[in-house]
Amino acid sequence: MKQISAIIDQLDTALAGEWPDAPGIRQLSYSLQKQPDTGLLEWLSAQPCYPKFYWQQRDGHEEAAVCGDCCSFGDMQRAQEFIRQHQDISDLHIWGLNAFNGADSSDVPANALFLPRIELCRLGNTYWLRCTLFSAVSLHEEAHRTRLFLRSLVASRALPPITSRVVQHQHLPAEPQWNQLITRALKSIEQQRFDKVVLARKTTLTLSQPLNACAFLAASRAVNHHCYHFMLAFTPQQAFLGSSPERLFLRDHTELFTEALAGTVANHSDNQKAHELGEWLLSDGKNQRENLLVVDDICQRLQGGAHSLDVMPAEILRLRKVQHLRRSIHGELTDADDAGCLQRLQPTAAVAGLPRQAARKFIAEHEPFDRQWYAGSAGYLSNEQSEFTVALRSAAVKGHHLELFAGAGIVAGSDAAQEWQEIENKAAGLRTLLEEHYTPVVQAG
Ligand SMILES: C=C(O[C@H]1C=CC=C(C(=O)O)[C@@H]1O)C(=O)O
Ligand SMILES: [Mg+2]
């Protein structure tokens, strides 16, 4: 990426100039004249600086690779206040993750939303590099720190092949405990404690060697189409990533786009068979109920914050391993308030249940692991536009371990064995990227 190193030299010269010895914020932006010779994910993978975040919008039109933090935020409210305080810098973007339980989650780092030092972005075929300087003390000192940071950046290189093999796997809950959990959930639904609860499983894969998170995400992006692809790398060995089909919300000024994505059937490689499965899904009562409860939840939660809500007819979203029912929802916000949107929409009934509080209580009491980032959200906020995907079809990379997450909506009429198969299919979107590389060990004798 010769162009990028030329821009970094230009940036270094600008930073070596005169900067006020006073608090402040500045942005320097440079267009790339042509498409870089390697991808943004390859560039990000090579950089030895953390945190780093990658994002690709599900229609593939927008992509960003960002790294280094000039400032980090414990929650969306603080991130939004920061953007509002610095309205004069029109293009400030804050990127990252929101935990499932939001800021009240005890054991996840609270600073997963950050204002990066460097952003390499693409919109269609247009590329640019943006550098942000922020200091509450001295921009002069910050310019110096940024120059040191720039020196740590390295040239892009090809992603390594995935050579990690799965040595062992462990499901939490395992299938017998899952069956008990579903029985208990169905009983609570019968007793009218709630109408729906979404229950999930964590599968820990032990690997033969640590997994390169960027290479894994690239492998997923190559095959898992119609998905948002995201990754937050905290350290060289630790990252959270995913390829999720679900939009939490897109805000464009005061226009809001969200959706109810719930109700699932397997995909099939044969188009005719896949179509028949999709037709079945559209007419199945249990799956329609799962989806319509999400519509109800979203419409209720948006009351007072948005008007002119339009709910589109159900459509089938066909993914590599599964197909879903989706109803798109569009509305007009009373105020361009991202923290408000997050608070109203996360978690939707596609990942928690309805009524929300009762379902969350059931999850907290009965699900045998902490969701942390799973079913939270990943994306960015900025003045004009913000977008977050629901952090599904996701995994935590932890050195030799990969934790895969998958859940399913439980409503009256759910069957434990079918829901187990459904979460197997959902987890397969990421899991098969490793297993396809798996060569069984041939036993001697
Ligand atoms: C909770 C998950 O999926 C949600 C989104 C789409 C379909 C779902 C379902 O049919 O159960 C879930 O509500 C997950 O992938 O972990
Ligand atoms: Mg389902």
UniProtKB/TrEMBL annotation:
Domain called Chorismate-utilising enzyme C-terminal: residue spans: 176-426
Annotated catalytic residues: K196, E246
Recorded metabolic or biological pathway in which this protein acts: Quinol/quinone metabolism; menaquinone biosynthesis; Quinol/quinone metabolism; 1,4-dihydroxy-2-naphthoate biosynthesis; 1,4-dihydroxy-2-naphthoate from chorismate: step 1/7
Cofactor(s) needed: Mg(2+)
Entries under Gene3D superfamilies matching the protein: Anthranilate synthase (3.60.120.10)
Enzyme class: isomerase
Binding site for Mg(2+): E290, E422
Reactions accelerated catalytically: chorismate = isochorismate
Its biological purpose: Catalyzes the conversion of chorismate to isochorismate.
Family, per entry: Belongs to the isochorismate synthase family.
UniProt-recorded name of the protein: Isochorismate synthase MenF
Species per Swiss-Prot/TrEMBL record: Rahnella inusitata
Name of the gene: menF
